[in-house]
């Protein structure tokens, strides 16, 4: 049934020439998803006023759009009908994901100061009881070109907050993400952003509190700039994990992450690639982590080219994902002491699979009970003015 949500405003449908149309949405009392999708398809500008909460109870397919402005001043919320969504979210085979909302096309602006609410708490509790539960990503930019998301708050996503899949020229600016569980069950897998098969993504001036990667560059992420992020509670800024799937070749290149504050996190600046039998391959090239300030982070600096593979197996089956031209510079702060005095861990597969790794201006300290910071490394020749901190890295 067509929703009752009304389309008001200066509808210029049928007008001759390029008169911009604007539609204002209101809540219907039932599922507002279909009316929201219809409005975005037929109007140039769609306004969700500040006092309006749209209840979206069916997945939204907003793909193939062109020249659209969604002014979200109010709230879009996804009521947590868990059995429904886990069976009806749009499916992506990459890492077995589903999503509430696909947005794609060209020249799209989503802004307005409003809220996208994933109502995650029941999902966090249900996932604790069912570890195979499919949970929806809050927003997926799919085949999107020249899209800006700015001045938006995203709350309590059941799964990743933002998935950029096959996107180009994408900007996220002044976005606040917050996943907080009020029960003992953590807000797991609530990555801030995951990029995949995408080129030219900027993520900047944003505040994140979540329970997994703050930003994760997944296979085929190129030419991206991350700057001025304040991440709390996350798993860090992560390249990878890469080289997971046998027969696939993953490229992550030309990524700069700078001006990042990272607190209460598992990792700060991280690159991870699988080793072991029956994995994939790839290249990680020209990655810079610059000007990070970290507080209470388990591993402030990480390369793990033996991801989820023990040392014996990693020596036998080194990673086929090569890591080259990496810079870690101007990184300061404190680790958590989670692994005693370790503040940086650069673990490479043997035989020069990591090369041109530069470490400079590192000022990291463990908690006070450990008098000396421990910089660890394996199978890598380091350059840069902080290389001496690591000692010899050629033993295995
Ligand atoms: C949202 O809409 C669905 C479907 O009409 C309805 O069952 C549900 O009660 C509504 N929830 C809210 C919070 O309005
Ligand atoms: C979304 O809509 C487009 C256009 O109608 C269609 O081609 C596409 O298959 C739909 N996507 C999904 C995931 O249903
Ligand atoms: C757990 O979630 C999966 C995937 O969503 C579903 O197929 C399965 O039925 C759920 N198991 C239980 C016990 O609810
Ligand atoms: C996240 O939400 C919690 C609970 O509302 C609040 O205490 C916390 O300050 C918020 N964090 C951020 C970064 O907005
Ligand atoms: C930051 O993360 C810590 C640990 O997860 C949490 O206790 C705290 O509430 C978070 N702070 C904010 C402002 O969200
Ligand atoms: C990444 O891009 C390369 C080069 O275009 C391609 O061969 C490879 O299949 C892509 N990998 C993935 C995971 O899409
Ligand atoms: C990386 O950037 C360089 C310099 O702009 C460019 O030549 C190269 O094609 C880029 N690499 C990829 C994989 O996009
Ligand atoms: C490295 O990547 C940055 C973007 O992050 C780009 O500006 C620069 O041109 C790249 N350098 C090379 C040598 O590809
Ligand atoms: C390393 O992992 C392999 C495969 O899981 C296992 O068979 C082996 O016992 C492990 N070796 C050590 C030293 O833990
Ligand atoms: C380190 O450099 C030496 C001298 O060039 C080279 O023989 C060795 O293979 C390199 N080791 C690694 C792990 O790259
Ligand atoms: C540094 O940490 C590594 C890895 O935990 C450990 O093997 C090594 O003994 C530590 N070195 C010192 C000096 O504590």
TrEMBL record:
It comes from Jaapia argillacea MUCL 33604. It holds the Pfam family Glyco_hydro_28. Specific in hydrolyzing the terminal glycosidic bond of polygalacturonic acid and oligogalacturonates. GO terms for cellular component: extracellular region. This is galacturonan 1,4-alpha-galacturonidase. Its EC number is 3.2.1.67. GO terms for biological process: cell wall organization; polysaccharide catabolic process. It catalyses: [(1->4)-alpha-D-galacturonosyl](n) + H2O = alpha-D-galacturonate + [(1->4)-alpha-D-galacturonosyl](n-1). It comes from the Eukaryota. It is found in: Secreted.
């Amino acid at each position: 049934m067509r929703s009752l949500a009304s389309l008001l405003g200066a509808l210029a449908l049928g007008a001759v020439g390029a008169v911009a149309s604007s539609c204002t949405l209101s809540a219907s009392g039932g599922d507002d998803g279909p009316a929201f999708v219809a409005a975005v398809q037929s109007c140039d500008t769609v306004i969700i006023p500040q006092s309006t909460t749209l209840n979206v109870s069916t997945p939204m397919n907003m793909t193939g759009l062109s020249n659209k402005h969604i002014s979200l001043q109010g709230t879009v919320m996804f009521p947590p009908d868990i059995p429904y969504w886990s069976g009806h979210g749009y499916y992506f085979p990459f890492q077995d994901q589903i999503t509430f909302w696909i947005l794609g096309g060209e020249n799209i602006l989503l802004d307005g100061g409003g809220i996208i609410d994933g109502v995650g708490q029941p999902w966090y509790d249900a996932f604790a009881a069912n570890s195979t539960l499919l949970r929806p990503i809050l927003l997926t930019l799919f085949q999107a070109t020249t899209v800006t998301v700015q001045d938006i708050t995203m709350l309590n996503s059941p799964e990743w907050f933002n998935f950029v899949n096959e996107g180009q020229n994408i900007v996220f600016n002044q976005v606040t993400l917050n996943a907080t569980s009020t029960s003992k069950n953590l807000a797991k897998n609530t990555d801030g952003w995951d990029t995949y098969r995408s080129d030219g993504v900027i993520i900047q001036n944003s505040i994140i509190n979540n329970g997994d990667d703050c930003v994760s560059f997944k296979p085929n992420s190129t030419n991206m700039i991350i700057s001025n992020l304040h991440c709390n509670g996350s798993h860090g800024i992560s390249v990878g994990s890469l080289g997971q799937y046998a027969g696939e070749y993953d490229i992550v290149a030309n990524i700069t992450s700078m001006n990042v504050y990272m607190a209460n996190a598992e990792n700060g600046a991280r690159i991870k690639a699988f080793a072991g039998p029956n994995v994939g391959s790839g290249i990680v090239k020209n990655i810079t982590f610059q000007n990070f300030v970290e507080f209470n982070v388990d591993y402030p600096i990480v390369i793990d080219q033996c991801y989820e593979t023990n040392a014996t197996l990693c020596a036998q089956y080194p990673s086929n994902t090569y890591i080259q031209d990496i810079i870690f510079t101007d990184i300061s702060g404190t680790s958590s002491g989670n692994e005693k005095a370790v503040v940086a861990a650069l673990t490479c597969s043997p035989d020069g699979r990591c090369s041109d790794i530069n470490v400079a201006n590192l000022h990291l300290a463990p908690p006070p009970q450990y008098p000396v910071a421990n910089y660890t490394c394996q199978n890598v020749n380091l350059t840069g003015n902080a290389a001496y901190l690591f000692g010899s890295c050629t033993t295995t």
